Every structure is written in C-alpha cells, then in structure tokens.
Amino acid sequence: MAELISKFEALGLSADKAKEAAGNKKLAPTLDSLITSTGQTEFTKSTGMLLYTLAATATKDKTPHADYIARAIVAGRIASTEQLGAATKFCAKNDPAAEETAFNETCGVGVVVSDEEIAASVQGAIDSSKDSLIKERYRVLGKVLGAVKKLPELRWADSGKVKAEFDAQTLALLGPKDERDTPAAAKAAAVKAAASTAPKAASATNATESNKWKPASLENMFASGDISRQHKPGENPQIKPELTKEHLAATKGMVITRFPPEPNGFLHIGHAKAINVNFGYAKTHGGVCNLRYDDTNPEAEEQEYVDSILETIRWLGFEPHNIFYSSDYFHQLFDLAVKLTEKGLAYVCHCSDIELKAQR
Predict the structure, then answer these.
(1) Using an 8 Å Cβ cutoff, are 249 and 219 in contact?
(2) What number of CA atoms fall less than 13 Å from residue 191's CA on the CB side?
(3) Partner of 13 for a Cys bridge, out of 18, 201, 230, 326, CB 3.0 to 4.6 A?
(4) DSSP for residue 41
(5) How many CB atoms lie within 10 A of CB 101?
(6) pTM, to two decimals
(7) pLDDT at residue number 204
(8) In the chain, which ranges are continuous DSSP H helix?
C-alpha cells in the first residue's frame, strides 16, 4: 500500500487522494499498470492528471490499447482531456500502433492553436451572436461559449485560453454584470411594476406568478462542461455490437432518459438537480424522459409521495413522456433472477446481518 501511495503521489496527487486511489480495488491496479507501462517514475502534474483520468475511465472491454495511450501521454502527444477522449474512442475500434498516422490525425497530435488564432475565432463567434448578446446579455453566455468550443478550428486549442479570451471579449462588449443580469433584482422590479399598475385584486396573483419557479436556460446548462461532451446515441461501445443495433432500433436514435425515484418520502434539493439533468438533457437534445417509480418496497411507500413527486417535476417545468412503476414488471425481474440462479450466475444469500458485517 505504501509503495502504491508513493507511486500515485509522483503523479501529482495529494497525499489523501493518493491514499484513496491506492485503496480503490478497481482503480489502483489499473493506474499502477499504466504507470509501469510508461517506464517512468517522475511526471509533470498535467501528465499525471491525464494518466489518472485514463485509469479512472478505462475498462477492460471498452479501453483497449490503454498502455499505448499512456505512453502517448508521457511523450506529450496526448496533452489534453479532449485529445484523451479522442484517443480512447480511436483505440476502441483501431490498433494505434498499426495506424499511427490515423491516430495522430484523429487526436490532433502536434496541432498547435496560437493565441492569435484563438482570439480571432472567439471574436468571429461573438460577432455572429452580437445582437443576441446585447439583448440577452449574460443570460446567453453559456450558449455562445458552447458554440465557441464546438468550432472546428478550436477543437485542439487550450480550453483554458479559450475561456479566458471569451471572458475578456464578452466583458469588453457587455461590461460588468449589473441589475439586468441578476434574476432576483429583475423579478423584484417586475413585481413592483406589476403591483403599481395592476388592480389590487390582481396584485396577489401577479406576485404569486412571479414567485413561481422558472427553470434556468437549458441551453446554458448543457452548453459547457463534461455534460456537453456526452456521447451521442450509439457512440457508447458495448461488449456485443448487436446490442447497440437493437438499442438504436428500439429508440430510433433518440435520447431517452429516466428519473427513477422511490416514493418513500418527499423530494429534496438533490432530487431537483437529478430532475433538471435527466429531463433537461433529454429536452435539449430533442429526446424524452420517463418517470419510473421504484416502488418495490410497499412498507415504506405511500400514494401521497407518488403524487408529490409528479407535482414537483411539473413545478420544475417538465412533463414525463411516460410514467412507469417497477412493480408492474416485478414478476419479470423475479423470473430473470430465477433463471440467473439456475444458470449458476446468481445465488440467494441467507446470512444474518451479523454474518454479513463480519464478512465485509
């Protein structure tokens, strides 16, 4: 354990993070193997973080040639998370050692985007969205930045430099944020204006409507960050390619997500995030989201919670495409469990709580 911790600290991980990684039964052997494959014991922090990211995302069946990618990282050929993502996808279907030229082209190896090129590309994108930016100001910044990051000429540019240049140019165009960019201030001003002009009987209604939850712009929410780089339908490699074909045939290539709460209580703020991500991601990409109640524990579940969950989803501005209940196909799940047990791929454990804790 101590040797592993020392190895992982050499990547630039903090002492606590290195200890955590060394204790991870899945991550530790993968990361150790990748480090060994590079033949080095000292790494720059950026190189170390890329090796850690590769190890954390690598799987036996979906990330072949991981050792090759690790050596490419150490050699400086793969120098960003964008390049690492492209390398992983390329190696899932190709042998990089046999197709090195194609690997280099696909992953942008050796491509350098100058500061001047970044500035010019960002300026062009801002100019094309200038009217919208001046009208909507900081409310559409996420959408415009998302478009900037998708520019082909900036694919292999330093993402930090792109963001810094974008921030500088938008600040020069719009100036610092003010009351026009603060939803609370804008809402208060709208309520005040409505109250001063509307009849007294309608004032309470207007105030109530103004306080109603209004979801943030979906374009902004999914325009940047890791969630903007999620694979498209069919791009997530499966152990059996025929499964992908069956999946695409069933979904018609559409993004279909689901929100699966257990109706054993009222939802909390954490659920709000899950609802926005699941429903919002599908809506942004022209797909649908299903509500599936995980109602397989009747002792803790009540109709009051079932109704409240749906009401909350609608309050957040979404509508389920379908509403399902796990209990409706519980017998199918039971039959599948029986088949797995008969095949020797599952078993029924009769251990007591004490025995289980002792075996952990």
Answers:
(1) no
(2) 14
(3) 18
(4) S
(5) 8
(6) 0.55
(7) 41
(8) 2-9, 15-22, 27-38, 45-57, 66-74, 81-93, 100-107, 115-128, 130-136, 141-149, 159-174, 183-197, 200-210, 218-221, 241-251, 269-284, 303-315, 330-342, 353-359
200-224 pLDDT, tens digit each: 444 444 444 444 455 556 767 777 6
Tokens of 94: 């190709």
Burial readout 119-135 (b: 16 or more C-beta within 10 A, e: otherwise): bebbeebbeebeeebee
Task: For the chain, give the mean pLDDT.
Answer: 84
Nearest-angstrom CA–CA distance, 115 and 120: 9
**Among 260, 256, 315, which Cα is nearest to 287's?**
256
Q: Which residues of 170-180 are buried (b: 16+ CB within 10 A; e: fewer)?
A: beeebeeeeee
For residue 282, give every residue at least 6 positions away whose Cβ sits within 8 Å of its Cβ, in sequence order, or none.
255, 256, 257, 288, 289
Highest mean pLDDT, choosing among 187-191, 208-212, 246-250, 351-355: 246-250
Q: How far is CA 231 from the centre of its chain?
A: 10
Q: What would the two tokens of residue 159 be? A: 């993402």
What is the C-alpha to C-alpha distance for residues 277 and 270, in angstroms, rounded to an integer? 11
